[in-house]
Specification:
The chain contains 15 helices and 17 strands. It is α/β, with parallel strands linked by helices and about 475 residues long. The protein binds NADP nicotinamide-adenine-dinucleotide phosphate and magnesium ion. The site of NADP nicotinamide-adenine-dinucleotide phosphate has 27 residues, from helix 7 and helix 8.
Amino acid sequence: MSFEYAPAPESRTVVSIKAKYGHFIGGKFVAGNKHFPTINPATEEVLSQIALAGKAEVDAAVKAARKAYTTTWSKMSGRERGKYLFRIARIMQERSREFAVLETLDNGKPIRESRDTDIPLAAAHFFYHAGWADKLEYAGLGTVTKAHGVAGQIIPWNFPLLMLAWKVAPALAAGNTVVLKPAESTSLTALLFAEVCQQAELPAGVVNIVTGDGSTGALIVNHPGIDKIAFTGSTEVGKLIARAVAPTSKSVTLELGGKAANIVFEDAAIDEAVEGIVNGIFFNQGHVCCAGSRLLLQENIAEEVLEKLKVRMAKIRVGDPMDKNTDLGAINSKEQLNKITELTATGDSEGAQRWSAPCELPGKGFWFAPTIFIGVTQTHRIAREEIFGPVLSVLTFRTPQEAIDKANNTPFGLSAGIWSDKGSKILWASSQLRAGVIWANTFNKFDPTSPFGGYKESGWGREGGRHGLSAYLKGASHE
Ligand code: NAP
Ligand code: MG
């Protein structure tokens, strides 16, 4: 029996979006000079005009952050700082529906994910770091801990509010002030967060948010008044940043790309593994740096897994992100859709076999059907480069050692997944895999207490947990 789901749309009336936004500097919204549109990628509707910060605005934001650091924030006890973080966390929870709707409208991700994952995790990061603020000397990072000063933070569009939380919460807990730039296509929740800072009566200048494009990011990176740079985004821009800060005394953390292997051994629980594969690559349209984008199947179970995977993929509901039943929303931008289209075309031309789930894609907006490529080999571009979309490359292996060799044969090293019924095999495989985060019999699980980050071209440093905190303290042993 097949049955249709009636639409269950979330209401967009819970948010009021201004026609135009400015920057948040020194505790106030200040008008911008130039503006650019931000759109809803599911409909191509222009949601608002976002200000583009140039040198003057970035300067003003850094000055405000410095002033707040010297006059207020660095003088305040950890206990007092912690109170502000708790307050922010609580307000984020109170306004979570507003945040979720705004995130979905601006980003294109399903409301179910922004409501159940992005926003609760963002609040959890503030709660967790609020707890650290008055306990820094017990973090095992030395008894005399000192903040860097002003942190410049640049984040991507795939988890806009969550990435903000990963950056702002530890920075503030450790006693830094911040200048943050959200991604060009997803500034709205960062601007709503600025309102939350006002509502929490956070001292002016502790958090400054300047919106803009890559040129604004570069101004932050190169600003002499900034002591620490924290960046999440592409490896390409990460390398530019590493070069820019090398001759300076700035401290830097980089969270970059990935091409995770999700390894299914012959003794795995197949149905569970299929769910994990789907979650690993189709969560957030595959716009996930730690996505399980390379599926490694043991040869003798490959056929069965692929058959079940196709059946499961045909049930993925693609469409209106505001519908509570939707599993896969819109691709965040036209540029990203072009990148996915281009890279998947190389999959065809290099000889892999494409299979896409049968689904109807909306006429407007940016969409890509859930897709797998079978018969992928190690040299294919779709096995080596990050597609950052709902596309899975499938490879096979015969022996566990071959699985490890293939999994590690990548310039990245962010995450990996292991599916097996045997604890000993899981422990053996995880000790061989060169990846910062390894999930066993699950995938894409995040927690503020758990450090996240990668090896090789996936970046420098960790975010979350005690290790992430250390990145915001001078001379901490994990720096
Ligand atoms: P991106 O182009 O590197 O952009 C990331 C941020 O950097 C954006 O705010 C961007 O501004 C800004 N930026 C661009 N050029 C810059 C420059 N020259 N100097 C300073 N800042 C600059 O990456 P993206 O395409 O938005 O995001 C996707 C990538 O991020 C993927 O490769 C993914 O793996 C990675 N990612 C990694 C993690 C992680 O934790 N490891 C998490 C999420 C995403 P604009 O938006 O205006 O371009
Ligand atoms: Mg947008």
